[in-house]
Predict the structure.
Amino acid sequence: MNVFNGGSDPGLAWEELERRVETCAACELHACRKKTVFGQGNRTSPLVFIGEGPGAEEDEQGIAFVGRAGKLLSSILQSVGIDRDDVFITNVVKCRPPENRTPLAKEMMACNEFLEAQLALLRPRIVVCLGNTPVKWLLKTSEGISSLRGRWFPWRGILLFPMFHPSYLLRNDSRKKGSPKDLTWQDINALKDRLSTIRQGGE
Ligand code: SF4
Protein backbone atom coordinates (compact mmCIF):
# COMPACT_ATOMS: atom_id res chain seq x y z
CA MET A 1 0.00 0.00 0.00
CA ASN A 2 1.31 3.44 -0.88
CA VAL A 3 1.19 5.86 1.99
CA PHE A 4 1.96 9.53 1.49
CA ASN A 5 4.19 9.13 -1.54
CA GLY A 6 6.44 6.66 0.24
CA GLY A 7 5.80 4.18 -2.54
CA SER A 8 7.26 0.82 -1.69
CA ASP A 9 9.87 2.34 0.63
CA PRO A 10 8.48 2.35 4.18
CA GLY A 11 11.34 4.60 5.36
CA LEU A 12 10.32 7.32 2.93
CA ALA A 13 6.65 6.87 3.80
CA TRP A 14 7.43 7.33 7.52
CA GLU A 15 9.49 10.45 6.79
CA GLU A 16 6.75 11.97 4.69
CA LEU A 17 4.14 11.12 7.28
CA GLU A 18 6.17 12.69 10.10
CA ARG A 19 6.71 15.81 8.02
CA ARG A 20 2.98 16.06 7.28
CA VAL A 21 2.09 15.77 10.98
CA GLU A 22 4.72 18.34 12.03
CA THR A 23 3.29 20.96 9.71
CA CYS A 24 -0.38 20.02 10.04
CA ALA A 25 -2.99 22.69 10.68
CA ALA A 26 -6.03 20.63 9.76
CA CYS A 27 -7.85 21.23 13.03
CA GLU A 28 -7.94 23.88 15.73
CA LEU A 29 -5.59 21.97 18.01
CA HIS A 30 -2.67 23.17 15.91
CA ALA A 31 -3.12 26.67 17.34
CA CYS A 32 -2.35 25.76 20.95
CA ARG A 33 0.22 22.99 20.59
CA LYS A 34 3.89 23.46 21.38
CA LYS A 35 4.97 20.31 19.57
CA THR A 36 3.16 17.68 17.59
CA VAL A 37 3.41 14.21 19.09
CA PHE A 38 3.75 11.68 16.30
CA GLY A 39 4.32 8.56 18.38
CA GLN A 40 7.41 6.44 18.63
CA GLY A 41 8.77 2.96 19.15
CA ASN A 42 9.47 -0.18 17.19
CA ARG A 43 7.96 0.16 13.74
CA THR A 44 8.10 -3.58 13.14
CA SER A 45 6.40 -4.54 16.40
CA PRO A 46 3.27 -6.73 16.30
CA LEU A 47 1.95 -4.60 19.18
CA VAL A 48 0.70 -1.01 18.97
CA PHE A 49 -0.69 1.11 21.81
CA ILE A 50 -3.08 3.96 21.07
CA GLY A 51 -3.97 6.58 23.66
CA GLU A 52 -6.19 9.62 23.47
CA GLY A 53 -3.89 12.58 22.90
CA PRO A 54 -0.76 14.28 24.20
CA GLY A 55 -0.71 15.80 27.69
CA ALA A 56 1.41 18.70 28.95
CA GLU A 57 4.72 16.81 29.13
CA GLU A 58 4.19 15.22 25.75
CA ASP A 59 3.36 18.62 24.26
CA GLU A 60 6.62 20.03 25.67
CA GLN A 61 8.79 17.16 24.49
CA GLY A 62 7.00 15.98 21.35
CA ILE A 63 7.11 12.38 22.61
CA ALA A 64 4.10 10.19 23.41
CA PHE A 65 3.51 8.91 26.96
CA VAL A 66 6.44 10.57 28.74
CA GLY A 67 4.52 12.10 31.66
CA ARG A 68 3.39 10.30 34.83
CA ALA A 69 0.91 8.17 32.90
CA GLY A 70 3.63 7.25 30.43
CA LYS A 71 5.96 6.18 33.21
CA LEU A 72 3.22 4.02 34.66
CA LEU A 73 2.62 2.49 31.23
CA SER A 74 6.33 1.64 31.02
CA SER A 75 6.15 -0.09 34.44
CA ILE A 76 3.02 -2.02 33.50
CA LEU A 77 4.75 -3.29 30.35
CA GLN A 78 7.96 -4.02 32.21
CA SER A 79 6.05 -6.06 34.82
CA VAL A 80 5.41 -8.72 32.17
CA GLY A 81 8.76 -8.37 30.43
CA ILE A 82 7.69 -6.09 27.57
CA ASP A 83 10.12 -3.25 26.84
CA ARG A 84 8.29 -0.12 25.75
CA ASP A 85 10.91 0.46 23.06
CA ASP A 86 9.78 -2.83 21.55
CA VAL A 87 6.24 -1.61 20.88
CA PHE A 88 4.88 1.38 18.99
CA ILE A 89 2.98 4.00 20.99
CA THR A 90 0.82 6.79 19.59
CA ASN A 91 -2.44 8.68 20.14
CA VAL A 92 -5.67 9.31 18.28
CA VAL A 93 -4.81 13.03 17.96
CA LYS A 94 -1.26 14.25 17.54
CA CYS A 95 -1.69 17.68 19.20
CA ARG A 96 -2.61 18.41 22.82
CA PRO A 97 -6.23 19.38 23.46
CA PRO A 98 -6.40 22.43 25.76
CA GLU A 99 -6.68 21.54 29.49
CA ASN A 100 -6.37 17.89 28.44
CA ARG A 101 -10.00 17.79 27.41
CA THR A 102 -11.26 14.89 25.33
CA PRO A 103 -10.62 15.52 21.64
CA LEU A 104 -13.72 16.54 19.68
CA ALA A 105 -15.07 14.22 16.99
CA LYS A 106 -14.10 16.73 14.29
CA GLU A 107 -10.53 16.82 15.63
CA MET A 108 -10.28 13.04 15.65
CA MET A 109 -11.73 12.97 12.16
CA ALA A 110 -9.17 15.52 10.96
CA CYS A 111 -6.31 13.54 12.48
CA ASN A 112 -7.57 10.13 11.45
CA GLU A 113 -5.64 9.96 8.18
CA PHE A 114 -2.41 10.03 10.18
CA LEU A 115 -3.47 7.23 12.50
CA GLU A 116 -4.69 5.19 9.54
CA ALA A 117 -1.43 5.73 7.69
CA GLN A 118 0.55 4.70 10.78
CA LEU A 119 -1.50 1.52 11.11
CA ALA A 120 -1.10 0.78 7.41
CA LEU A 121 2.69 1.06 7.75
CA LEU A 122 2.92 -0.77 11.06
CA ARG A 123 0.60 -3.65 10.14
CA PRO A 124 0.39 -4.77 13.80
CA ARG A 125 -1.18 -8.00 15.01
CA ILE A 126 -2.65 -6.44 18.16
CA VAL A 127 -3.87 -2.88 18.72
CA VAL A 128 -4.24 -1.96 22.39
CA CYS A 129 -6.63 0.93 22.99
CA LEU A 130 -5.87 2.81 26.20
CA GLY A 131 -9.07 4.25 27.65
CA ASN A 132 -12.42 5.30 26.29
CA THR A 133 -11.43 7.61 23.48
CA PRO A 134 -9.42 5.28 21.22
CA VAL A 135 -11.66 2.27 21.74
CA LYS A 136 -14.85 4.21 21.02
CA TRP A 137 -13.21 5.81 18.01
CA LEU A 138 -11.86 2.62 16.46
CA LEU A 139 -14.70 0.25 17.34
CA LYS A 140 -17.37 2.89 16.67
CA THR A 141 -19.14 1.98 19.87
CA SER A 142 -20.75 3.96 22.65
CA GLU A 143 -19.89 1.27 25.20
CA GLY A 144 -17.44 2.40 27.85
CA ILE A 145 -13.99 1.10 28.70
CA SER A 146 -15.17 -0.54 31.94
CA SER A 147 -17.25 -3.06 30.03
CA LEU A 148 -14.90 -3.34 27.03
CA ARG A 149 -11.54 -3.77 28.77
CA GLY A 150 -9.95 -7.18 28.84
CA ARG A 151 -11.99 -8.43 25.87
CA TRP A 152 -10.54 -9.42 22.49
CA PHE A 153 -12.25 -7.85 19.49
CA PRO A 154 -11.61 -9.11 15.97
CA TRP A 155 -10.97 -5.89 14.03
CA ARG A 156 -9.87 -5.57 10.41
CA GLY A 157 -8.34 -9.02 10.44
CA ILE A 158 -6.31 -8.36 13.59
CA LEU A 159 -7.11 -8.12 17.30
CA LEU A 160 -8.11 -5.06 19.26
CA PHE A 161 -7.68 -5.16 23.03
CA PRO A 162 -8.97 -2.33 25.25
CA MET A 163 -7.29 -1.55 28.57
CA PHE A 164 -7.68 1.25 31.09
CA HIS A 165 -5.65 4.38 30.37
CA PRO A 166 -2.75 4.67 32.84
CA SER A 167 -3.92 8.15 33.89
CA TYR A 168 -7.14 6.52 35.13
CA LEU A 169 -5.02 4.13 37.20
CA LEU A 170 -3.15 7.09 38.69
CA ARG A 171 -6.48 8.44 39.93
CA ASN A 172 -7.56 5.04 41.29
CA ASP A 173 -4.79 3.78 43.46
CA SER A 174 -6.47 0.79 45.12
CA ARG A 175 -5.02 -2.63 44.42
CA LYS A 176 -8.01 -4.52 45.84
CA LYS A 177 -9.48 -7.39 43.89
CA GLY A 178 -11.63 -5.97 41.11
CA SER A 179 -10.02 -2.51 41.27
CA PRO A 180 -8.84 -0.90 37.99
CA LYS A 181 -5.22 -1.76 38.90
CA ASP A 182 -6.11 -5.37 39.65
CA LEU A 183 -8.04 -5.65 36.37
CA THR A 184 -5.14 -4.07 34.49
CA TRP A 185 -2.79 -6.65 35.98
CA GLN A 186 -5.08 -9.36 34.58
CA ASP A 187 -5.24 -7.58 31.21
CA ILE A 188 -1.50 -7.11 30.80
CA ASN A 189 -0.95 -10.78 31.57
CA ALA A 190 -3.58 -11.78 29.02
CA LEU A 191 -1.85 -9.50 26.52
CA LYS A 192 1.56 -11.01 27.24
CA ASP A 193 0.18 -14.54 26.76
CA ARG A 194 -1.47 -13.64 23.46
CA LEU A 195 1.66 -11.93 22.23
CA SER A 196 3.76 -14.99 23.11
CA THR A 197 1.37 -17.21 21.17
CA ILE A 198 1.60 -14.92 18.15
CA ARG A 199 5.40 -14.80 18.36
CA GLN A 200 5.53 -18.58 18.49
CA GLY A 201 3.46 -18.68 15.31
CA GLY A 202 0.41 -20.07 17.10
CA GLU A 203 -2.00 -17.49 15.60
FE1 SF4 B 1 -3.34 18.12 12.47
FE2 SF4 B 1 -3.98 16.12 14.07
FE3 SF4 B 1 -2.73 18.24 15.08
FE4 SF4 B 1 -5.29 18.44 14.31
S1 SF4 B 1 -4.50 17.17 16.01
S2 SF4 B 1 -3.63 19.90 13.83
S3 SF4 B 1 -5.32 17.06 12.53
S4 SF4 B 1 -1.89 16.80 13.58
User: Anything to note?
Assistant: The longest strand covers residues 158-163. The first helix runs from residue 10 to 22.
